[in-house]
Amino acid sequence: MDVTGEALRRYQALSFLRSWLVDLTTTVQHELLWAGFWDGDPRNRKNQATLSNFAKAIEHATVHPDSFLGQAIEASENLDACYEDMQTSALAGNMWSIASMSFVLGMRERAQGTVIALVNKQITGEHSLSQSVLSTHEIPTVGLAAWGLGFWSPKVLVVDLMGTCDKTSSALQKRLLARLPYWAKSMTNWSPEAFAMRSRLRWQCIDCSGACNLDTALAERVEKLVKAKEEQDRKGEELTFAVLHGQLQLVEALLKAGVQAEPFDKELAVNLGLQQIADIL
Question: Which of 135, 156, 141, 132 is nearest to 100 (CA)?
Fold first, then answer.
């Protein structure tokens, strides 16, 4: 097989991430992302302890600092010293990029259906959301993992403690596409339509300001949404299995029951020569 040098380097880089770094991001539970929590909040509404307790209440873990890689980054004070020097500042950016890719690849490989992001930052200003690791690295990597690598259709669930979903949601959704142009450019034989069909990523933002807190009521609401997505994914897997085995009647029954087909289900049916199934997907 003739493999170009660029393709080989990309494969080697992804293999390295998957075989070593991704394992360092593993947590016992599903993982969540966050931005803007610190110790010292007088109301204890947005500090690290509140964040940690909420994560436990919804049976999730914060990848940073609950994973080995996250703990290593936290031990170095979030690489803050690297930003004091122009030469090492770029290296710190690369480190966050690699770490974020590892965190998100871990979610994809474990088929995590819902990516929860807790946000407590304004879009602009000092220490803004637009400058955060979540916006500059983690959300773009979610987009890359979903559409670039394909075959992962998570629901991104943003909880905005500023109550500014009208601004936060659109800003972060745009960041989903940040790393895709370079990836798409290297795939010269793909059409934009085929590229878009690689994932059916969904998005929801919950405003949580004023009386809303990271409490039991919110945890129950979030858990309900997570469980619903898990059930949806389970039925989706059942549909894919039916397509794979050419079970037309089961495919029809599942579609009639409201199960949504993923883009790759139709592609699978076409590749297997199952035209009747492909026509109804």
Answer: 141
* Residues 278 and 266: beta-carbon distance below 8 Å: yes
**Angstrom distance (rounded) from CA 218 to CA 157:** 13
- Report the DSSP pairing between strands 155-160 and 202-207: parallel
Going 276 to 235 to 60 to 165, the CA torsion angle's sign is positive
Residues 6+ apart with CB under 8 A from 276: 248
Residue 233 and residue 111 in contact, taking contact as beta carbons nearer than 8 Å: yes
Residue 278 CA, chain-centre distance (Å), reads: 29
Length of the chain: 281
Going through the chain in order, the beta strands assigned E by DSSP cover: 30-35, 60-62, 114-119, 155-160, 202-207
Residue 162 makes CB contacts below 8 A (sequence gap 6+) with 119, 120, 121, 122, 168, 209
Measure the CA–CA gap between 88 and 99, rounded to whole angstroms: 16
**Coil vs helix vs strand at 210:** coil
**Strands 60-62 and 30-35, bridge-based pairing:** parallel
Give pLDDT tens digits for 204-252.
999 998 888 999 999 999 999 999 999 999 999 999 999 999 999 999 9
- Exposed, middle or buried, 9 (CB in 10 Å: 0-12/13-18/19+)? exposed
Q: What is the pTM of this model?
A: 0.81
